[in-house]
Amino acid sequence: MRILMRRFTRLGYAAFLVSAFHTASVSAAPFVQTPVQGSVNDDLNPYPDKPRLTFKPDGTFKLTVFSDLHFGENPWDDWGPQQDVNSLKLMRTVLGSERPDYVVINGDLITGENTFRENSTLLIDEIMAPINEAKVPFSSTHGNHDNQANITHIEEIERELEVAPMSYTRAGPNGVGGTLGPGNYWVPIYAKESDLAPILILWFFDSRGGFSPNPNSIPVPDWVDASVADWIKSESEAMETAWGPAGSSRAALTFMHIPPHAIQAVQPTITAQKNPGLNADFLGSGSVQDSASAGNDKPFWDALNTHIENLHAIVSGHDHGNEWCAREPTKNVIFCFDKHSGYGGYGQAGWGFGVRNILFHTPNPKASVETWIRLEAGETRARVILDDNYGR
Ligand SMILES: *[C@@H]1O[C@H](CO)[C@@H](O)[C@H](O)[C@H]1NC(C)=O
Ligand SMILES: *[C@@H]1O[C@H](CO)[C@@H](O)[C@H](O)[C@H]1NC(C)=O
Questions:
Q1: What's the pTM?
Q2: Which spans of this chain does the record mark as coiled coil (predicted)?
Q3: Which residue in 50, 214, 334, 347 has a CA-CA distance of 20 to 30 Å to 25?
Q4: Neighbour-count burial of 357, counting CB atoms closer than 10 A to its CB (0-12 exposed, 13-18 middle, 19+ buried)
Q5: What is the mean pLDDT of residues 298-318?
Q6: Does residue 222 contact residue 290 with C-beta atoms inside 8 Å?
Q7: Whose CA is closest to atom 8 on ligand 1?
């Protein structure tokens, strides 16, 4: 009965899907479902009122990651607003030519230190404009500059949901995420519209940091809170109950703004050949999660690597001068940096601005994934294939 009702509801989506999706990321047909065996069901879909996100009919799925956009610097000067004009141009250029199936905005949307209480969320409206025009599904993580005197992660999330209809960003359940770290959630991606179980889970974590809003302005811990560890476990168990074991039927990809602490030890071992891409930011001086006292993110790091199976990569921004991917040997997991996308935020001449693209060639959860950096003008570099052999 439940399944019949859902089928009906999804038929209701058809017209919306056709008009809302201008890429082929959600297929409108077929809606015919094969009879479902066992315990597989749709009860765990966190987006019952939104279109199901799917691989394209040709079997591919492409993500484009904008990171560290840093909107709103020095609104009282000319150069601050001009940076944002440049960043919007980059976003429109990239979205127009890459035509991704999903966009991730991986933290530091705003340089919150410079924003005013009365209008800080207007910057979210500015960032959402190119995404809304492209009609591409997306979601955001939030960074240390998004928690400041006049802005917080939850304010940005709420505003995004108000102004961007294609947003899949969610706040996690109450009690998960710790102080000022609400942005812990996952998004299911299906191989095709009629599937009841997703083939890929995109996980998003809130690495917090920055300062609590006025009048307190106290530093916020800059690591994923230990409460997220239990939540990862319980969500993974719920997924297993609903859809069966991940085994060879479900993969994952993870995004968080600040790199996990363990990545600091990886940097000295990378080589230009194995780990191509800019390597100009030294981790350890406030630029990794939990840099002051190693180990605070251990519960999260352990849970992530214990309960999330078939994890293709963990993807972070925060360090504007880094672009590489590398294997973290103790957990045997791949980590990748984003590409600094915003003209705001620190940088150096020659670093350039762009995005990270991630391309699934097939829905097969065990297949390799291709990823590379794309610069604004179209140049690409640091292309690597993420598989069991990568980075060993
Ligand atoms: C916000 O208000 C400040 C002060 O009035 C102004 O300088 C700035 O341009 C405004 N920002 C936006 C995004 O409207
Ligand atoms: C926060 O906003 C208020 C009101 O617009 C402004 O007076 C104050 O300077 C802002 N705080 C910071 C740290 O920019």
A1: 0.89
A2: none
A3: 334
A4: buried
A5: 97
A6: yes
A7: 75
